[in-house]
Amino acid sequence: MLPHELRELPAHTPSAAELADLELLLNGGYPLPGFLGEADAEAVRARRRLADGTPWPVAITLRLPEGEPDAPSLVLTDPEGTPVARLDVTERWGPPGERRAAGPVHALRPPAHGTFRALRQGPEAVRAQLGTASAVLAVVAGGPLHRRAIAQLRHTVEQLGGPREVRVLVLVNPAAAHPVATGDALVRTVRAALPELPAGTALAVVPLPGHGAPPEAERALAGRVAAAYGATHLLSEQPLPLGDRAAEQPSVLVPPLWVYDTDVEVWRPAEKVAPEHVRAEPGPEELAELLDAGEPLPDWFTPPAVAAELAAARPPRSRRGLVVLFTGLSGSGKSTVARGLADSLAEAGRRVSLLDGDVVRRLLSAGLGFSRSDRELNIRRIGYVAAEVARHGGVAVCAPIAPYAATRAEVRAMAEEVGGFVLVHVATPIEVCEARDTKGLYAKARAGEITEFTGVSDPYEEPADADLTVDTSDLTVDEAVARVFDHLVKDGWVAADG
Questions:
Q1: How many CA atoms lie within 13 Å of 167's alpha carbon, on the beta-carbon side?
Q2: Binding site annotation covers 331?
Q3: Does 221 share its domain with 325?
Q4: Which positions make up the signal peptide (predicted)?
């Protein structure tokens, strides 16, 4: 329980990125006392230095919610409401809607939630694990470690004195935006590469969220964090800006280009390989295509254990979770087509959940009205449930009106974080929808008996990003269902022989 003196303080749950920053503030990964005030933040953005001249690359700030009470301290909680830290507010700054709080942070309890807790050790524990090696070579892994990166790392260790003198530290950043493996999946792929690395390699999970700063500033921040964890050297594909080389920065080593030499079947520096013997490694898009098709990844490119983790993280589309969101006016036929698609998908062997607009309104969103904010909340709820279905490999077929582009984009983002997303615009003209209206809703809306009715007294924002458009005024239900189903087969979401 919280101490008595903290129970009356207002609580605030920071964003995921701010919670990652908070974790590094509390464990010493960021050598700062807390979130920055306006003078420090502006100085960092302008000169990559704090107001007192101390080199620091990125502004670490905490945004406040609207209406946050003017209290001397805040209790910062995780998404489950568990208190994590106390922020003693020394400054509130920024314009309305962008208000921020600055001040030192104090841990209230060790983090209790989240995956890979045993690997989320702070700098002190990691330094103890590294011991008294004469050099510590770190790499910040924002993607899987394939054979090229492994060969470069092992070669660099030899250049620095060999495994007896040099320890290797791999910092995995689960917040990295990698096209194939992110979050927990990224941690698993990097862990799978450990047997290929020098004995005694230390592995730590360190969240390094993006802050919207220039890429060179984000790289400098990663260097500062690596130094806090004990790195004396940092293996990086790009150098740090000279102005950011504070005493706390490790020496940055930029390896030469390495390629796969088909003549001797090893990875070597490009200058030692004849051009005709260079085998190009698959890029991110080609790698994603191989995984989507269920094709094996070649051993020369990545270790089998890493390939297995990637295949588990990104199974073929026909076995991956998917959200199909139908959007259209009332009476457009979207619910009927959605039901038909759900039946066809079930017949093809996919696990399907149908989230129809009217059913969701009675159950999941009971009590909500039809104001814009309530409509947006209804779609967010549908999106959350649909994304959870997709997270576990199922297909969620959703058929709300979903009139607003921004909210549909939120659902797309939720779905694509865990699986796939297909937006189907049922673009039946309003006059056809109105003519079909057996409930008389359009007539009531035009008579003013129903307010905020989409297409009449409330806008419908036609999607510019629809993956497929169907019009049930010139297609039968079966034809519309077949068109959507065929689209899913073509894109690999349903096995062609399903």
A1: 19
A2: yes
A3: no
A4: none
